[in-house]
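go over my protein:
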Amino acid sequence: MNMQDISDECTKKFLERIKEKMEAKSSVPSHLITKYCRMRTIYCESEGKVSKSFVTAMDKCIQEIISIEGMEDIMNEYNKCPDNS
């Protein structure tokens, strides 16, 4: 799977999980989820070898997501690299 496919799969699963757990889905901006998944994919594929500014930007994106009520638990489920087995 290429990086775009991995990112797209992350976004799809993340949004499905939000739909399952939350009723007010419209309060979760999908562009933030897409951005996070792209950044997570880059981070994981590079085995964490990214710049400090990249990590800072990723942390900022995570903070924006978890600032939305009910999102912290969902973020904790997805804030890890996927299993590549």
Q: What stands out?
A: The two ends are 12 Å apart (CA to CA). Residues 29 and 80 are 20 Å apart (CA to CA).
